[in-house]
Amino acid sequence: MDVVNCLSCNEFIDRFANIVEHTPKVAEILEKRRPFQNLDEFYHTLEDVLKNDNHVDREEILRKHPDLAGKLSLQGLLTQESKKEQLSAGLSNITEEERSLLTVLNNQYRMKFGFTFIVCARENKLNSILTGLQNRLKNNKNDEVLIGMREVKKIAKLRTMDIIHSLSC
Ligand code: GUN
Questions:
Q1: What CATH number has the domain spanning 67-151?
Q2: Could you say which of 45, 63, 77, 155 has the lowest number of CB atoms within 10 Å?
Q3: CA distance 163 to 93
Q4: How far is the C-alpha of 164 from the C-alpha of 1, rounded, in Å?
């Protein structure tokens, strides 16, 4: 954790700005809560910020994520992090039919809940993403805010590990 605690304020915010997609506010809040004793404490603090901080709008976070294999991906406009995650789920290698099905379900999901379907892409492949979408479409909005934020947390932890790894090299 020394390497994280020793970063300048600006450098910390810069490095951690996208652990939650398009939400640098989370990095700004985390920066003020340094130093961290260890990675566990960092993760606990991250969870606390995502769950309890009044400056963090959970539905806005869910809205700011791009669709998996959606328009932004086709246009090459994803963040580096999202691009890498979607690649690891194999979403750059799907057929037109599979992409269409994903688009229909992503759109249904957004119509029902008002935000993006989020799943930790690095822990999934196309089939489990499609099954997850179909199952989660049956939920109510309150449950989906909780489930979506749980996935955001997983994504943020993996992005954090990547950053710490790169800082240690
Ligand atoms: N899972 C991991 N990254 C992403 C992302 O950028 N968008 C969505 N919807 N899910 C993700």
A1: 1.10.3330.10
A2: 77
A3: 27
A4: 8
Q: Where are the domains of the chain?
A: 67-151
Q: How far apart are CA 151 and CA 164, in angstroms?
A: 20
Continuous H helices in the chain: 2-5, 9-16, 24-32, 39-52, 58-64, 71-74, 80-88, 96-113, 126-136, 141-168
Contact 123, 154 (CB under 8 A): yes
pLDDT at residue 143, as a whole number: 98
Q: What is the mean pLDDT of residues 120-132?
A: 97
Confidence grade of residue 122 (pLDDT, cut at 50, 70, 90): very high
Task: Provide the pLDDT confidence category of residue 168 given band limits of 50, 70 and 90.
Answer: confident
Closest Cα to atom 10 of ligand 1: 118
Q: Annotated active-site positions, please? A: 65
Pull the structure tokens for residue 155: 């994504």
Cα angle 32, 37, 38; round to 5:
110
Q: Looking at this protein, which amino acid is placed at residue 15?
A: R
State if residue 68 touches ligand 1 by the CB under 6 angstroms criterion.
yes
pLDDT tier at 20, thresholds 50, 70, 90:
very high
